[in-house]
Design goal:
27 strands, Penicillin Amidohydrolase, domain 1, 10-stranded mixed beta sheet, 31% helix, globular, alpha+beta, 9-stranded mixed beta sheet
C-alpha cells in the first residue's frame, strides 16, 4: 500500500539514514519490548504417535504448557515466529507492507496496552500457564538459533502471548472489515437492517426470493488483513447427535474450515497433566491450550458466527482536530505516534504513523472525518481463562458456567457429552445497547459520537443469547448460518423472540441448506449417514446458486461462451468429480459465494463464465476436464486430486492458482475430529489433517503423511489414553529448561 511505502521512502531520505542503520535499527528499537519472566524450571514428556501427533505429559499444567510450545515449535517454528512478531508489533519486519498493516492495527486497538492492563488480572494459574508456554518458546529458540528469522524476537513472556490474543480475537467477527474501509476513506456498507429492495431475507423452506443471501450486513463486511486467513471465506460445520437418534453413541463432529497453513491453521495435540488436565483437540499457533476437542467427559467445537458486534461513531472535532465534543463538552483526543517496521528488500524502513483514541474506542481519521470504533470484548482478555477452564469442565452445567461469563467474544459452540447431552450456544459478547427506536439511534448505521448515552458498556447477559439444549429432534448442527435453523422445524428458535438490537445475523449458507435438509430427512443418524452428510458435495438451487443459474438460463451468448453456458445448465449440482461440468462450476461458483459472504454485489455472470472458460481451455484444452485434475491438494512433492467445492459440506473453499493452471487448496476442510461416547465405555475419537503434523518441515515423515487419508475421506485414530499412546509411540522424549 502506498500509504506505507511512500512515507517510508520519504522518511529514509529525510533523516539520511545509511544502509547499515536501516538494517540494524529495528531489532535495537524493539530490544526492550518484552522482558522474560522470572526463571522457573519446567519438564514435560512428549510422545509422538504413528502420525507424529504430540501427546504432552507433565506433573503440572504449566509443565504441559511448556511442552506444548516445544512440540509445536518442533513442527512449525516458522509460523510461531510470525505470531510472536505480530504480538509485539514487529510483523512488518518479516512480511513487509502486509505485515505493517497488522502492526498498525496492533497499535490502533492497543493490543499491548490491553495485555499489560489485563494480564495481571487473570487468575494466578492461568498466568502461570501462559508464562510456561512462553518459556517453552524461549527454550526452543535458545536451542535452535539458526532458525530465528528476526533479531531480538526472543525471549518472550506471558504478556506477549496475551497481546497476541488481544490482537487477533476481534478479527473473527469482522473488525478488519470496518478498519479497512475507514483507513481507505471508503463508505461502510449497511448492516443488518430492513429488507433491501431486490434482496429480501430468506428462510429455509419458506419459498421466498432466492437472492436473500446478498443482503448487505455490517457483520459480513470484509477487507482482509493478513492474519493467515481469507476472512471472506470463514466457515465451519459442526454436528452433535444424541444416542436415541444415532442408534448408539453420543456423537460430536468437528469440521472446521480454516487456512491449511499460517497463523490460524489448526495444530493437533493431546495434553495430560497430574492436575487433571486431559484433552484432545487442536489449537492455533500462539496458544497454550486447545480451542476445541474433547476430554473424557465432554467435548465441543466451534463455527464462526457473524453478529453485529461493532458500532462506528462519527466524532465532532474542533478546528484544531485535537478535541472532540461529548455531551456538549470538549475532550482531548488521545493521540500517539508509533513506528511501523516495513521490510523492503534487505532493509527494514521505519514508517511513522499516528493512532488516536476516544472514550468510545480506537479512532480513525480520514478525509471524511473522525470515526470511533467500539466492539464486543474490547479491552478484555478473560477468554484466556475461560478456554482453560472449558478444557477442564466435567459436565454441561460447569461448561455452560464458563460460557455464561461472556468472556469468549464470539463463535458458535456445539457441545456433546458422555451423559447424552447435546447443546448449541450462539456465543457472542453482544453489546448491551440501549433499546432505542431507530429515530433516536439507528444501530445499523454510523452513530453520532457526541452522545454518551450511545456508548454502551459491556455485553448482554448469557440468558439473552440464542441456545438449544437437548432438542427433541436429537440433533444439532451449524454451518455458519443464522441460529434460527439448528435442530429441525419442531425445535428451531424463533427470531421474533430476540431483540433486533442484539444484532444477530439472518443469513444462510449452502452448507446450512444442505445440512438442514439431509439431517431433517434422516430417520437415523448413524455413523454411515453422518459420514455421507459430512462429505456431501451437493448444492441447493437457492440463494446465490439460484441467482447464478437463473442468470445463466437468461444469458445470451455465442461460440465458446454459449458452449460453456449450455454445459453448466446440464450440471447435477454436485461437486463430486463425476459430471463433465464440475470443473467449470467450481471456477464460476466461488466468486458468487464470496460476494454473498462479503455482502458485495453479485459478479457479472458472462464475465465470470468467460474467465472460467478461458482458464480451462488454456490449461486443459477443453471445458470439461475431470475436476480431480483441476482441484489439487499439494504439499512438497505430493499432489493429489480433491473433491468438494466452495460452500459444500465437503469444503474446498479457496485456492491458489498454480502456473500449470491447477488449483492448490489453501482454505477449506482442515482439522476434522469425530468423537463418540458409547454408554458405559470410555470416549473414543478419530481425526485428520490435510497434510500432517509437521506442516513446515519438509524433511519430516509427518510433512504429508495424512494427505491420502484426507482426500479419501478417511480418519485416523486419536490415542487419547496413555496406554494406547505408548503402544503407538514412534518417538518418546523429555524436554526441560533445566540448565
Amino acid at each position: 500500500m502506498t500509504w506505507l511505502k511512500g512515507s517510508a521512502i520519504a522518511l529514509a531520505g529525510a533523516v539520511g539514514l545509511g544502509v547499515a542503520g536501516l538494517a540494524a535499527w529495528e531489532p535495537f528499537f524493539a530490544h526492550a519490548a518484552a522482558a522474560p519472566a522470572a526463571p522457573r524450571t519446567y519438564a514435560a514428556e512428549i510422545i509422538r504417535d504413528d502420525y507424529g501427533v504430540p501427546h504432552i505429559y507433565g506433573d503440572t499444567d504449566p509443565d504441559v504448557a511448556f511442552g506444548v510450545a516445544v512440540a509445536h515449535a518442533e513442527d512449525d517454528f516458522f509460523t510461531l515466529q510470525d505470531v510472536i512478531a505480530m504480538s509485539r508489533g514487529r510483523y512488518g519486519a518479516i512480511a513487509g507492507e502486509d505485515g505493517a498493516k497488522v502492526d498498525f492495527v496492533y497499535h490502533l486497538i492497543d493490543a499491548r496496552g490491553t495485555a499489560a492492563r489485563e494480564f495481571p488480572k487473570l487468575p494466578r494459574e492461568t498466568r502461570a500457564l501462559l508464562e510456561a508456554y512462553a518459556a517453552g518458546l524461549n527454550h526452543y529458540a535458545s536451542q535452535h538459533p539458526g532458525e530465528i528469522k528476526l533479531a531480538d524476537l526472543f525471549p518472550v513472556n506471558g504478556e506477549d502471548i496475551a497481546a497476541g490474543f488481544a490482537l487477533r480475537q476481534p478479527f473473527f467477527f469482522g473488525l478488519d472489515s470496518v478498519i479497512g474501509p475507514l483507513v481507505a476513506g471508503k463508505p461502510l456498507r449497511p448492516e443488518h437492517g430492513p429488507d433491501i429492495p431486490g434482496f429480501p431475507r430468506e428462510k429455509i423452506g419458506d419459498g421466498s426470493a432466492v437472492a436473500a443471501a446478498a443482503a448487505p450486513t455490517r457483520a459480513g463486511r470484509r477487507l482482509v488483513l493478513p492474519l493467515g486467513e481469507e476472512a471472506e471465506h470463514l466457515g465451519s460445520n459442526a454436528f452433535a447427535v444424541r444416542p436415541e437418534k444415532s442408534g448408539g453413541p453420543t456423537t460430536l463432529i468437528s469440521n472446521s474450515h480454516q487456512p491449511l497453513r499460517g497463523g490460524v491453521a489448526w495444530y493437533e495435540l493431546v495434553v495430560e497433566s497430574g492436575e487433571g488436565w486431559h484433552f484432545a483437540g487442536a489449537n492455533f499457533p500462539g496458544s497454550p491450550f486447545p480451542f476445541l476437542g474433547h476430554n473424557e467427559d465432554l467435548g465441543w467445537t466451534n463455527t464462526v458466527n457473524r453478529p453485529d458486534m461493532i458500532d462506528v461513531y462519527q466524532l465532532e472535532l474542533d478546528a484544531s482536530g485535537t478535541r472532540y465534543k461529548l455531551d456538549g463538552a470538549w475532550r482531548d483526543l488521545e493521540t500517539r505516534e508509533v513506528i511501523l517496521p516495513v521490510k523492503v528488500g534487505p532493509l527494514v524502513l521505519p514508517v511513522p504513523r499516528t493512532v488516536h483514541r476516544s472514550v468510545h474506542g480506537p479512532v480513525i481519521v480520514n478525509d471524511k472525518g473522525a470515526f470511533a470504533i467500539r466492539y464486543g470484548g474490547m479491552g478484555k482478555l478473560d477468554q484466556l481463562d475461560a478456554y482453560y477452564r472449558l478444557n477442564k469442565a466435567r459436565d454441561l452445567s460447569e461448561w455452560q458456567g464458563q460460557l455464561a461469563r461472556m468472556a469468549i467474544p464470539s463463535t458458535n459452540f456445539i457441545y456433546a457429552d458422555k451423559a447424552g447431552n447435546i447443546a448449541y450456544v450462539y456465543n457472542a459478547a453482544l453489546p448491551a445497547r440501549p433499546e432505542l427506536d431507530a429515530v433516536t439511534a439507528d444501530w445499523r448505521s454510523v452513530l453520532p459520537g457526541n452522545r454518551s448515552d450511545l456508548i454502551w458498556q459491556g455485553a448482554v447477559g448469557y440468558d439473552r443469547l440464542p441456545k438449544l439444549i437437548n432438542p427433541a429432534s436429537g440433533w444439532i448442527y451449524n454451518a455458519n448460518n443464522e441460529p434460527w435453523t439448528a435442530a429441525g422445524a419442531r425445535d428451531d428458535l424463533k427470531p421474533a423472540d430476540f431483540s433486533p438490537v442484539l444484532g444477530i445475523e439472518e443469513k444462510q449458507t449452502n452448507r446450512s441448506r444442505r445440512a438442514y435438509k439431509l439431517l431433517s430427512e434422516a430417520d437415523k443418524l448413524d455413523r454411515a449417514t453422518l459420514a455421507r452428510i459430512k462429505y456431501d458435495t451437493g448444492y441447493e438451487r437457492a440463494g446465490y446458486v439460484a441467482t447464478l443459474w437463473d442468470a445463466l438460463a437468461k444469458l445470451k451468448a455465442t461460440g465458446q461462451l454459449a458452449e460453456a453456458r449450455d454445459l453448466l445448465l446440464t450440471w447435477d449440482f454436485a461437486a463430486d468429480g463425476k459430471h463433465p461440468a464440475d470443473s467449470l462450476a467450481l471456477l464460476v461458483i466461488r466468486d458468487f459465494m464470496s460476494a454473498e459472504y462479503g455482502n458485495k454485489p453479485m459478479p457479472d455472470v458472462a464475465e465470470k463464465l468467460q474467465a472460467a472458460s478461458d482458464h480451462l481451455t488454456e490449461h486443459f484444452g477443453r471445458l470439461d476436464p475431470p475436476m480431480g485434475e483441476l482441484l489439487r491438494l499439494r504439499q512438497g512433492k505430493r499432489d493429489l486430486p480433491l473433491d468438494g467445492g466452495s460452500d459444500t459440506l465437503r469444503a474446498s473453499t479457496t485456492w491458489d492458482v498454480a502456473e500449470d493452471g491447477r488449483l492448490s487448496l489453501k482454505h477449506g476442510d482442515s482439522f476434522i475430529q469425530w468423537v463418540e461416547w458409547l454408554p458405559g465405555q470410555p470416549v473414543r475419537s478419530q481425526s485428520i489433517q490435510p497434510f500432517g503434523a509437521a506442516t513446515t518441515r519438509p524433511a519430516s515423515p509427518h510433512y504429508t503423511d495424512q494427505m491420502k487419508l484426507f482426500v479419501d475421506h478417511k480418519l485416523k485414530p486419536v490415542h487419547f489414553w496413555r496406554t494406547d499412546v505408548v503402544s503407538h509411540a514412534r518417538a518418546r522424549y523429555r524436554v526441560t529448561n533445566r540448565s
